[in-house]
């Protein structure tokens, strides 16, 4: 007898997992951005915020474990869907038509790996191998004063903005929030959140490069 597929083995199940895990990741990204705004309040504010987090190990490690689970589920589902789509393709069409959904999918495919590499670099730079473990403000400013390092963060956050926009827009559709009357609202919400994250995060390296934020 053919065995029944569980929800996570179906295409819609994998998309739901991607949507839920994506919401968790975006929620963290928003909180991370809001915390980083302490950069504009000076060394005491940013270092004090970092010290507060270090004084709450249960919260920090609980968040890290949740994110590890979310990232693992997100990446595994994305890779599985990519393989499924690749196997489902027949012969290539002689004429390829770029629909909006095709553009969104292709954007997700290249922005995802870029984000993964950016995340690894970010963790190495500020968490695992920081130059000044007890001075987050100095780490940030000295790092972003290097145009090469700043460019890595700029490219990574542009990829993040595109990924968040298409991911959020698709997530609403996956969970059934798809109706001509409301589609413009979910698009506006996706645009708003991705724009705030992108512009806000880009402001950090740009502010250091232009001398607005200094040691």
Could you walk me through the main structural features you see in this protein, from its secondary elements to its overall organization?
Helices cover 76% and strands 0% of the residues. The chain is mostly helical and 215 residues long. The chain has one domain (7-87, 100-209). The model is unreliable at 91-102 (pLDDT under 50).
Entry keywords:
mainly alpha; 215 residues
Briefly characterize the structure.
This protein is mostly helical and 215 residues long. It has helices at residues 11-36, 43-54, 57-88, 100-128, 136-144, 147-174, 183-209. The longest helix is centred in the middle third of the chain and has 32 residues, at 57-88.
SSE diagram, text form:
Blueprint (H helix, E strand, L loop, with lengths): L10 H26 L6 H12 L2 H32 L11 H29 L7 H9 L2 H28 L8 H27 L6
Helix pairs in contact: 1-3, 1-6, 4-6, 6-7
Q: What sequence of helices (H) and strands (E) makes up the elements?
A: HHHHHHH
The quaternary structure here is: single chain
How many separate structural domains?
A: 1
Number of helices: 7
> Largest sheet, described in full?
none
Low-confidence stretches: 91-102
Radius of gyration: 20 Å
> Care to count the β-strands?
0
C-alpha geometry: globular
Tell me the strand percentage band: under 5%
Query: Structural class of the secondary elements?
Result: mainly alpha
Terminal Cα separation, in Å? 69 Å
Mean pLDDT across every amino acid position: 84
| Share of helical residues | over 70%
């Amino acid at each position: 007898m053919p065995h029944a597929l569980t929800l996570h083995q179906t295409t819609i199940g994998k998309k739901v997992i991607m949507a839920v895990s994506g919401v968790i990741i975006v929620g963290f990204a928003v909180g991370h951005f809001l915390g980083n705004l302490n950069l504009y309040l000076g060394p005491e504010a940013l270092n004090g915020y970092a010290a507060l987090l270090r004084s709450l190990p249960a919260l920090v490690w609980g968040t890290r474990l949740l994110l590890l689970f979310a990232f693992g589920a997100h990446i595994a589902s994305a890779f599985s869907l990519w393989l499924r789509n690749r196997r489902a393709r027949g012969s290539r069409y002689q004429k390829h038509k770029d629909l909006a959904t095709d553009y969104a999918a292709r954007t997700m495919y290249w922005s995802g790996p870029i984000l993964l590499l950016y995340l690894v670099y970010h963790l190495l730079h500020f968490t695992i191998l920081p130059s000044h473990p007890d001075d987050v403000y100095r780490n940030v400013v000295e790092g972003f004063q290097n145009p090469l390092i700043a460019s890595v963060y700029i490219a990574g956050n542009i990829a993040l903005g595109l990924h968040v926009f298409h991911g959020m827009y698709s997530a609403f559709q996956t969970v059934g929030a798809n109706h001509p009357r409301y589609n413009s609202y979910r698009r506006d919400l996706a645009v708003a959140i991705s724009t705030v994250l992108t512009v806000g995060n880009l402001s950090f390296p740009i502010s250091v490069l232009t001398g607005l934020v200094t040691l």
